[in-house]
Design a protein that fits this description.
Oligomer: heterodimer
Number of domains of chain A: 2
Helix content of chain B: 25-40%
Largest interface: A-B, 20 and 21 residues
Shape of chain B: globular
Shape of chain A: globular
CATH topology of the largest domain in chain A: Rossmann fold
Helix content of chain A: 25-40%
Order of helices and strands of chain B: EEEHEEHEHHHHEHEHEEHH
Strand content of chain A: 15-25%
Low-confidence stretches of chain B: none
Mean pLDDT of chain A: 92
Radius of gyration of chain B: 19 Å
CATH class of the largest domain in chain B: Alpha Beta
Order of helices and strands of chain A: HEHEHEEEHHEEEEEEEH
Largest sheet of chain A: 7 strands, mixed
Number of strands of chain B: 10
CATH topology of the largest domain in chain B: Rossmann fold
Mean pLDDT of chain B: 94
Bound molecules: adenosine-5'-triphosphate, magnesium ion, zinc ion
CATH superfamily of the largest domain in chain B: P-loop containing nucleotide triphosphate hydrolases
Distance between the termini of chain A: 76 Å
Number of helices of chain B: 10
Chain lengths: ~300, ~280
């Protein structure tokens, strides 16, 4: 070791995107491999980030490896741009990636990092969606050994996962999975699509945007490349259903704020303990509201 | 065309490192299956036999003689140290131990069936009895819920498991009932070859008799070839047309079951028959 070595001053501090160039290269290589094998959980050396694992460090590493000065980033947490988690991640990227733009408007974003939701409005070919993943392997519920899970994936043997769905129908008359619905990509690998609701699963199918999923703690990256086939695991005679948000009269509930009847709704209780429903995608809700107001002004 | 479904030649399994003296130092003449030089266990050595379509072959022998080891290798639960086995299936010839792991699993899941003495090895106690049967159907790419239910119902009915028990966990079942579910599960893909390892051991006599009857009926209905492992001569007498007698890993006598029972050649078999009369 050369003890007289002095660190060149201009290299002191963080490199663009916090991760060193080597780490970013590794993540990018892993992304390429993940795209080549749609749905395959590609291992990578997930780095320590200055925040706890479980706070989206997997997604963040994807974002940091991809983002460049020309990019505009949108960060969402459970559909909302201004939850603590989203704000923290956004600030971190702004801090470590000088010159990068941030936005809450979906159409302005080139890169979207999200937790638990896919935006209501369809993404475009020019956009990349990064999803934060806590548990990447859908087989973990039926097989504890990773070595055996890998074989099951390689052989596309999802029979034990399907047995779980079978048991659900037997005991509850329906498949009760509400989030993380196992979804088969390009007819081979079944992925855990991250804790998105069922509502979002059809958006994975034939998506014009590249969708990348990153699990920091589990050190896995996987991809749903543009225009991939994404099919929720079902039986031939028991079709996949999304949440229908019907009230007791069978009426589709509307967002209490913008009136939308075609969005995923979050349930809240108001001061009188009555249930109210609102768009979970806050930017979508804002957009709908703005359109109504415009129409009112014109009209 | 031959009706042969399985051809086993020189099947051997040594547990341990083995040494050049293992084989000659063990076996019935040496009264042990443990090599005195290296302490390896010669569990099975040089087992050869043929099995024909729809035939029930018995393997009998005392505890530790290598019966289960033999069947486990053929079902890919364990790999042989030597020997070959050829499975003839719809005009296809499968060299069992030359196949890769994925092909072996596919044969095991779709073309073979296994019923273990210990239901924990054969049943998934996380799911219902019907779910156990569903699992094997799903492995064979049947993905129609209604069809799976119908077929599971049919099989449980056939193996005399009460229909209302279909959606219950087999944990709560009696030993005999668990074996029935295992049999139903093994049969769901209509495999041409079924292995049964001490399936009635430890059950009440009346339950044993009923299960043996069921096995016999199934063999007649479906023309399934079976290898039945037991240390109970009564089971062999009832089920098996031909029998292998094993001792210390070797087949010491083989032939028609009736002949073996009436005129046992080997002293060991003679004692076995005498003690079972
Ligand atoms: N995994 C193993 N490691 C070491 N020895 C083993 C192993 N499995 C079996 N053996 C030994 O191989 C020999 C044959 O065992 P095997 O289970 O085939 O006997 P078996 O005829 O089925 O007996 P049983 O009637 O008790 O079931 C025994 O001596 C046993 O101790
Ligand atoms: Mg045994
Ligand atoms: Zn030896």
């Amino acid at each position: 070791m050369n003890i007289h070595y002095e660190f060149p001053l201009e290299e002191v501090g963080y490199s663009f995107g916090f991760l060193d160039e080597y780490a970013k290269k590794e993540v990018r290589r892993t992304i390429l491999k993940a795209i080549c094998i749609p749905g395959y959980q590609t291992p990578y050396a997930s780095r320590e980030m200055p925040m706890g694992r479980g706070f989206g460090t997997g997604g963040l590493q994807l974002t940091l490896a991809l983002i460049g000065p020309d990019d505009t980033l949108k960060v969402i947490d459970q559909g909302s741009d201004d939850s603590v988690n989203a704000v923290n991640l956004r600030q971190f990227v702004q801090l470590t990636c000088p010159g990068v733009g941030v936005t809450e408007k979906l159409e302005e974003a080139t890169l979207i990092q999200s937790r638990h939701r896919i935006p209501e409005v369809a993404l475009t070919e020019a956009q990349v969606l990064v999803l934060q993943v806590p548990y990447p392997d859908p087989l973990v519920v039926v097989e504890s050994s990773e070595a055996r899970r890998k074989i099951m994936h390689a052989e596309a043997d999802y029979s034990r996962l399907l047995v779980k769905l079978y048991e659900d129908i037997v005991h509850f008359d329906e498949i009760t999975i509400s989030h993380r619905y196992p979804t088969r990509i390009n007819r081979h690998y079944v992925i855990d699509p991250s804790p998105i609701p069922r509502w979002d699963v059809p958006k994975l199918d034939q998506s014009p945007a590249l969708i990348l999923l990153g699990a920091g703690r589990e050190k896995k990256i996987y991809a749903v490349p543009p225009y991939s086939v994404a099919e929720p695991l079902v039986f031939d005679d028991v079709p996949f259903r999304v949440e229908d948000f019907r009230d007791e009269h069978g009426q589709r509930r509307a967002c209490a704020r913008c009136g939308a009847i075609n969005s995923f709704l979050d349930e809240y209780s108001d001061d009188n303990n009555a249930k109210i429903y609102q768009c979970s995608d806050s930017a979508y809700c804002d957009g709908q509201l703005a359109q109504h107001q415009q129409r009112e002004v014109k009209g | 065309m031959s009706n042969r479904i399985l051809e086993v030649r020189g099947l051997s399994r040594i547990y341990g490192h083995g040494c050049p003296l293992c084989v000659e130092s063990t076996g019935p003449e040496n009264d042990t299956n443990i090599c005195p030089h290296c302490s390896s266990v010669v569990a099975v050595h040089g087992v050869s036999f043929d099995l024909f379509r729809g035939e029930i072959l018995g393997i009998i022998g005392e505890s530790g003689s290598g019966k289960s080891s033999t069947v486990k290798m053929l079902y890919f639960d364990d790999a042989p140290t030597e020997g070959e086995a050829i499975f003839f299936d719809n005009g296809e010839r499968h060299e069992l131990f030359q196949r890769n792991a994925a092909q072996q699993r596919s044969l095991r899941n779709k073309r073979f069936g296994m019923v273990y003495q210990n239901p924990h090895l054969g049943l998934n106690f996380q799911v219902s009895a019907g779910g156990n049967i569903a699992e094997r159907m799903l492995m064979s790419d049947v993905a129609h819920y209604g069809e799976i239910r119908r077929r599971a119902q049919e099989l449980l009915l056939r193996t005399e498991v009460l229909p209302e028990r279909m959606d219950q966990n087999p944990k709560t079942f009696s030993g005999g009932m668990q074996q029935r579910v295992q049999i139903a599960k093994a049969l769901v893909t209509r495999p041409p070859l079924l292995f049964l390892d001490e399936v009635t051991t430890g059950l009440d006599l009346s339950v044993q008799a009923a299960i043996l009857d069921l096995i016999l009926e199934i063999q007649q209905e479906l023309d399934t070839a079976m290898i039945v492992v037991t240390h109970d001569l009564g089971v062999i007498r009832l089920l098996a047309g031909r029998t292998l007698v094993m001792k210390y890993g070797r087949v010491i006598e083989a032939g028609l079951t009736d002949q073996i029972l009436e005129d046992p050649q080997h002293a060991y078999t003679q004692r076995l028959v005498a003690s079972n009369l």
